[in-house]
Amino acid sequence: MRTPKIITAVVVFVGIFFSGCKAQEVNIKRKDLQNIIIDGYLHKVEMQEIILDANQGAPVHYHPCPVVGIVISGKILFQMDGEDAEILNAGDVFYEPKDRKILCFENVDANNSAKFVATYLKESNEKSIELTH
User: Fold this and answer.
1) Which stretches are annotated as coiled coil (predicted)?
2) Which domain holds residue 114?
3) Within 10 A of 71 (CB to CB), how many other CB atoms are there?
4) What is the distance between the alpha carbons of residues 98 and 62, in angstroms, rounded to a whole number?
5) What pLDDT, on the 0 to 100 scale, is given for residue 102?
6) Which among 41, 70, 71, 57 is positioned nearest to 108, based on CA atoms?
7) Less Cβ around it within 10 Å: N or C end of the chain?
């Protein structure tokens, strides 16, 4: 059974991620940003910091695995197939389901770059992204 390994990996990941936080903080405030239920188990979690230059966008694509992300800075126009377009600002989170076409993921700021962190939740050795034609 792989579940204990997954739980251990997640606990270690969270511990490392938040290791810069002060342990003495007593007034920690938490705000749920997104909760996603994923069936099965994960083989690998990959995180990437991605920077889009001013007015730069990704081509139409999909991910062979679910992707959870958070915008660090900038303003991104985001649209999945079958959904309305929306603007993501710094602090906004997004979810891209496995194999769902992403029609638009574009930095709409003409002067500044946009930065986000994408977390790829992989069941095996899937690629992180596939371009569509």
Assistant:
1) none
2) 33-131
3) 20
4) 7
5) 98
6) 57
7) C
Measured CA to CA, the distance from residue 89 to residue 102 in angstroms comes to 18
Digit-coded pLDDT (tens) for 10-35: 544 545 555 555 555 578 777 777 77
Sign of the four-CA dihedral 96, 83, 30, 70:
positive
Both tokens assigned to 20: 């810069």
Nearest to 98 by CA among 125, 68, 76, 70: 68
Per residue in 44-93, pLDDT (tens digit) is 888 999 999 999 999 999 999 999 999 999 999 999 999 999 999 999 99
Please say whether the dihedral angle defined by the alpha carbons of residues 130, 57, 79 and 67, taken in this order, is positive or negative. Answer: positive
Confidence bin at 5 (pLDDT 50/70/90)? low
Q: Is residue 25 a part of any domain in this protein?
A: no
Report the CATH number at residue 96: 2.60.120.10
Q: Of 121, 70, 112, 124, which is closest to residue 92 (Cα–Cα)?
A: 70
Nearest to 62 by CA among 49, 86, 89, 81: 81
Distance of alpha carbon 116 from alpha carbon 94, whole angstroms: 10
Number of domains in the chain: 1
